[in-house]
């Protein structure tokens, strides 16, 4: 390991970074792409080099994230890859350790390729994603009447202007939503024919309120499938955002009643996705739940201060962190309405836990009580566990709309 150096990438190293990461993940990067190059943040990318050769990478993207009651900066970690020739020699550990100590944001988050990788660095799964496969023949219509002028279709250029404000409003409603700059929106709406896999071009369906303002959208594709017995097309829903109940019901009415179609697939929905309320036969909604976001608290007092809590609480947390020393110690979290303080204290602890459990509960989906059940959270003051757990829980599940 002595000959492996870890340093920030140079602006001209996008090609080398891309080669290492795509090779590690085993995808064909295709020809170099100007948009991806523009999105490359060299100064926030760490590379491990063996001589002149880049052998490992990790990137942090500058994006914001909705958390309970706020939108905050969050290091979006991606591009974690080590050349197969250099694995299991501690290269990733060095890259991630340095990144977590360096990032200015109080939280870092990622989607994990494998669950076993990131727990050792203090990350925890903090949100679930639901993948649906809907049997459109069995599910039964929602029986909603759609206002005749409510639905429309946008071109990608129109969507680039109209949809960013809808996503920003979603961030005010739900935790877990990553902000998108103009460039990120361009990447999200890009629709290269070679990536369509036999499906039609992406459709951008929008819902408008009575005043004509867009209050929801769905990005979807269709795939023709003609069986000897007749049509069995597939509707592939990529992203659905609805800012109110009418938009939600009317967008789904459209999607669930698509002619010639027998199946709808929809990934990355929230755990509390209310779709089952709209249909006659909820058993026609086949659901699979998996981890989505993993979160790491890099600055305990700042992270706990920058979100909101459902009920008041005053608790002393004794936190351990094996990687970032400044996070180890006792912190008093005091919440009174929207006033939140979290400061170091010498007072005795009410609860003991590690920074990993704080990451797990940060977006309000998982409960502290889950971790007390296995001894990862220890209650010293009777009642402190439930009071603190209740304060951290949030009434709306997080949703992460895209793997970054
Ligand atoms: C995952 C990856 C980056 C790990 O790199 P690495 O340099 O071999 O990791 P390290 O040597 O620092 O490993 C640190 C520890 O994590 C463990 N570990 C690493 N990868 C693991 C994996 N995929 N599953 C389980 N444990 C893993 C190692 O065994 C080691 O454990 P130890 O400390 O008990 O010995 C590398 O295997 C890789 O590029 N994989 C393919 C791409 C990928 O999955 N990237 C992650 C995208 S989210």
Give a structural overview.
With 404 residues, the chain is of the alpha+beta class. The chain is globular. The strands form four sheets. Strands 1-2-3-4-5-16-6 form a seven-stranded mixed beta sheet. It has a seven-stranded mixed beta sheet with strand order 8-9-10-13-14-7-15, with helices on both faces. A five-stranded mixed beta sheet has the order 19-18-17-20-21. α4 (156-173) packs across α5. The protein has helices at residues 14-25, 34-39, 91-102, 156-173, 182-189, 245-256, 300-305, 355-361, 368-372, 384-392; strands spanning 4-8, 45-50, 53-67, 70-82, 107-111, 124-125, 128-135, 151-153, 203-208, 214-223, 226-227, 230-231, 233-242, 261-269, 285-291, 293-297, 313-320, 329-336, 339-344, 351-354, 378-379. The chain contains ten helices and 21 strands. Bound molecules: coenzyme A.
Task: Please report the distance between the alpha carbons of the first and last residues.
Answer: 30 Å
Bound molecules: coenzyme A
Please give the domain count: 3
Range of strand content: 25-35%
Computed Rg: 23 Å
Give the quaternary arrangement of the chains: single chain
Mean pLDDT: 96
Q: How many H/I helical runs?
A: 10
Strand order of the largest sheet: 1-2-3-4-5-16-6
Q: What is the helix content?
A: 10-25%
């Amino acid at each position: 390991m002595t000959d492996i150096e870890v340093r920030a990438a140079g602006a001209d190293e996008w090609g080398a970074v891309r080669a290492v990461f795509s090779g590690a993940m085993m995808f064909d990067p295709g020809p170099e792409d100007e948009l991806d190059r523009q999105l490359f943040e060299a100064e926030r990318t760490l590379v491990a080099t063996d001589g002149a050769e880049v052998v490992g990478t990790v990137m942090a993207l500058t994006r914001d994230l909705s958390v309970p009651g706020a939108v905050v900066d969050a290091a979006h970690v991606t591009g974690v890859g080590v050349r197969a020739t250099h694995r299991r020699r501690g290269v990733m550990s060095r890259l991630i350790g340095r990144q977590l100590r360096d990032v200015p944001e109080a939280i870092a988050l990622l989607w994990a390729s494998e669950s076993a990788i990131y727990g050792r660095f203090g990350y925890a799964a903090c949100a679930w994603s639901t993948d649906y496969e809907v049997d459109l023949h069995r599910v039964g219509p929602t029986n909603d009447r759609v206002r005749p002028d409510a639905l429309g279709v946008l071109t990608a250029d129109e969507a680039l202007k109209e949809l960013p404000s809808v996503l920003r409003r979603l961030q005010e409603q739900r935790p877990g939503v990553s902000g998108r700059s103009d460039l990120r929106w361009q990447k999200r709406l890009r629709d290269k024919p070679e990536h369509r896999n036999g499906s039609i071009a992406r459709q951008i369906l929008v819902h408008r309120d009575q005043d004509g303002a867009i209050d929801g959208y769905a990005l979807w594709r269709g795939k023709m499938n003609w069986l000897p017995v007749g049509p069995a097309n597939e509707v592939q829903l990529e992203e659905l955002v609805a800012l109110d109940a009418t938009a939600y019901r009317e967008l789904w009415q459209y999607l669930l009643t698509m002619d010639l179609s027998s199946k709808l697939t929809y990934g990355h929905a929230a755990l509390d996705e209310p779709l089952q309320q709209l249909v006659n036969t909820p058993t026609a909604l086949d659901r699979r739940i998996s981890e989505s976001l993993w979160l790491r608290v890099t600055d305990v007092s700042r992270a706990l201060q920058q979100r909101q809590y459902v009920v008041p609480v005053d608790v002393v947390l004794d936190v351990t962190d094996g990687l970032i020393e400044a996070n180890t110690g006792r912190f008093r979290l005091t919440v009174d309405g929207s006033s939140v303080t979290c400061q170091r204290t010498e007072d005795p602890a009410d609860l003991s836990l590690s920074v990993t459990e704080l990451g797990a509960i940060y977006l309000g989906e998982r409960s502290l009580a889950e971790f007390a059940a296995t001894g990862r959270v220890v209650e010293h003051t009777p009642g402190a566990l439930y009071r603190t757990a209740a304060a951290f829980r949030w009434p709306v599940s997080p949703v992460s709309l895209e793997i970054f």
